[in-house]
Specification:
alpha+beta, 8-stranded mixed beta sheet, 14 helices, 35% strand, globular
């Protein structure tokens, strides 16, 4: 059923139903909570939520249908760290939503109460890129100290929508004694859509009937979600539930997914059918000698470079209006612009015009979750790419993602089960995973070491593959000043004394050239000086980095987003009168068939020049996900690499040079 039809039903339903109003009073404080000296759920927690209560209400205001989520949380503070982490509250929300009715108070151990003042609440934009705007409401709770209880509430209003799909968290960054949701399912006559609730990472949670047609679900003793480096996507780890509406039809995966693939095919087959204008344009791009891959490369290049993508290009108001009215590829072609989906369909239609077989393929985003066929709903299958059959193989393309390297997909789409839609037999095919050689951090440094141990020189860093895509997505909407400040901060984070100048960034919004930045740097005291010796760490790009896996134990599996490589080429010119004393080289490391670490060094004595080359790759064979039980094998590997990156060589002042220096001073 179309969304507007469902919204109409909802509007009529709520116009005929009594409005439910929940009380805005604070709940009484239990003296036992005031006296609580230690957390209940996790013994070492610095703060703990006593309860977190959320009411989910679909309602109507005039002719506007909306979802309102009313949140109320009460937190006990145990330590100074708990005070530091919980005093400042930030509530993120989409720019199209609203946050209102924020209220809060602090209850001190002596029973005194401090109210949150309305003028202490601030609003700011944290992300505003490619049509995505994320804002934050922030405020600081007053007078918080260990032993205090803080509580605050707010409403999130999602206009022009109902709970067709609502992602509801059950876990926070602190443990929770009890989290409870109140949800009112829709009950409309002759409506095949019914509300369903699917829990993730919790086990079964019973639903209880409440007054006024609500149902509630409660989870107790919920541990905190502890962030770890290289962990799987949150939705595969944290406790949450999906509230959604779907038709009451067969939920057997072997029946559901073929049926879904047929439905998508029927909706898109006419759009992917080329008309005369598409056929004519396609023919003009190709030659008789082009094979299937040459044809696809040319079509891909055209769609990416000749059609303005509304996600990345600022269009005029008139162009945006026309883009919204696009239905068929011929309209995209005529306008020379389109939304990402329009460009995707144009590519598919042109591939069909070239005599190939192109289909829509649906797939999920593995940066957010891992796809599981057993969940028979299309909620996770939000992504779309084009699959083209060449011989017995299926090749996959995403021309609408401007920064994805040719021959690759976004890393979020690679290594995924893609459902290739078909009128008769939709089929799941795994998309290929690009190897480490496709995503490379290439880092070059040319440095001079001064006699006092300072380092000075130029740096150039280049990114390819998935690194390139991520950097461009992160920075393409920033101003040059913002880009420079962010990248300088990366250097300053590991080397606080670095003095950076002549910063230059290239190819931020180029679809074909790699994201590159360069700078001049001076670092006083980079080398430790002791008497006649200077101690140099040649691995400049790893200098000052924290351990990738600092903890002794692991709570969650280890997950690397994509295979990658690192290539470092660095040269150091020694000060006059110094020579290399210990030409030792860090030992290489082979990580089974998964990765390899190698260091090469060469010293040219006559030029006082040390050349350092470091090579590292990981993820060969698609080895990206490891159970937490393997942490005790993986952590030592990266610890060894870090230790070898800290390898130091010694520069020794020559005796004759020292004597000459002493004579000159006299």
């Amino acid at each position: 059923m179309k969304n507007w039809v469902l919204n109409l039903f909802l509007g009529l339903f709520f116009l005929l139903s009594p409005m439910i109003v929940f009380g805005e009073d604070w709940k009484p404080i239990d003296p036992a909570h005031t006296a609580l000296k230690a957390p209940v759920v996790e013994k070492d927690a610095d703060a703990e939520a006593i309860f977190w209560e959320v009411r989910v209400l679909d309602e109507v205001d005039g002719f506007t249908v909306r979802t309102v989520l009313s949140n109320y949380i009460r937190i006990k503070i145990f330590t100074d760290r708990g005070k530091d982490t919980q005093t400042k509250v930030e509530i993120p929300y989409l720019g199209s939503y609203k946050i209102k009715d924020i209220a809060g108070r602090t209850i001190k151990a002596d029973g005194s109460i401090l109210e949150l003042k309305k003028d202490a609440v601030f609003d700011r934009i944290v992300i505003n890129t490619n049509g995505l705007k994320i804002k934050v409401k922030s405020f600081a709770m007053p007078g918080v100290e260990p032993g205090s209880i803080i509580e605050y509430r707010w409403k999130e209003i999602r206009n022009d929508t109902v709970s067709l799909y609502s992602h509801l968290d059950l876990q926070r960054d602190i443990p929770i004694q009890q989290v409870k949701y109140f949800i009112k399912p829709l009950s409309l006559p002759n409506l095949s859509y019914g509300m369903r609730i699917k829990n993730f990472n919790t086990g079964a949670i019973p639903l209880n009937k409440e007054k006024d047609g609500y149902v509630s679900t409660t989870l107790t003793n919920v541990p905190a979600l502890h962030k770890e480096n290289y962990m799987p996507p949150d939705d595969t780890i944290q406790s949450w539930m999906l509230v959604y509406y779907s038709e009451d039809k067969n939920q057997n995966p072997d029946i559901f997914w073929p049926q879904y693939g047929k439905e998508v095919y029927e909706k898109t087959k006419d759009i992917l059918k080329p008309d005369d204008s598409v056929k004519k344009l396609t023919a003009s791009l190709l030659t008789a000698s082009d094979g299937p891959k040459e044809k696809l490369d040319k079509i891909f290049f055209f769609c990416r470079t000749k059609i303005k993508n509304s996600r990345y290009t600022k269009l005029s108001d008139e162009e945006l209006k026309k883009v919204k009215d696009i239905t068929y590829p011929k309209e995209t072609l005529k306008l020379g612009a389109g939304a990402p989906s329009d460009i995707l369909f144009l590519f598919g239609a042109m591939a069909n015009a070239a005599g190939l077989e192109a289909r829509i393929a649906r797939l999920s985003d593995r940066s957010k979750s891992f796809f599981d066929k057993r969940f028979t709903d299309s909620y996770f299958m939000k992504g779309a790419i084009i699959a083209v059959q060449v011989g017995t193989d299926w090749l996959f393309f995403d021309p609408a993602s401007l920064y994805v390297s040719s021959g690759m997909l976004s890393w979020k789409e690679e290594g995924q089960e893609a459902l290739i839609c078909d009128a008769k037999q939709p089929v799941f095919v795994r998309t290929p995973l690009s190897g480490p050689e496709k995503s490379v951090r290439k880092r070059n440094g040319i440095f001079k070491i001064t006699e006092d141990g300072s380092l000075e020189g130029t740096v150039k860093i280049q990114f390819t593959g998935h690194f390139d895509e991520d950097k461009k997505e992160d920075y393409d909407s920033d101003s040059p000043k913002e880009e420079q400040e962010a990248l300088e901060a990366e250097v300053k984070k590991r080397i606080s004394t670095a003095e950076i100048s002549d910063f230059k960034i290239e190819n931020v919004d180029s679809p074909d050239n790699p994201f590159t930045y360069s700078y001049h740097v001076r670092i006083p005291g980079y080398c430790q000086k002791t008497g006649k010796r200077l101690f140099l760490q040649p691995a400049y790009f790893n200098y000052g980095l924290d351990a990738i896996f600092p903890a002794g134990e692991r709570k969650y599996p280890i997950y690397f987003p994509f295979p990658w490589s690192e290539e470092d080429h660095i040269s150091f010119e020694f000060p006059t009168g110094y020579e290399l004393e210990n030409p030792s080289v860090p030992q290489g490391l082979t990580i089974s068939t998964v990765g390899k670490y190698t260091v090469k060094m060469q010293y040219a004595a006559e030029k006082r020049l040390l050349s350092y080359q470091r090579f590292f790759n990981f993820g060969n064979g698609g080895s990206l996900l490891y159970p937490k039980d393997s942490y005790q094998q993986i952590k030592p590997i990266f610890d060894m690499i870090q230790e070898r990156d800290k390898h130091v060589v010694t520069l020794k002042q020559k005796v004759d040079a020292q004597s000459s220096s002493t004579t000159n001073q006299q």
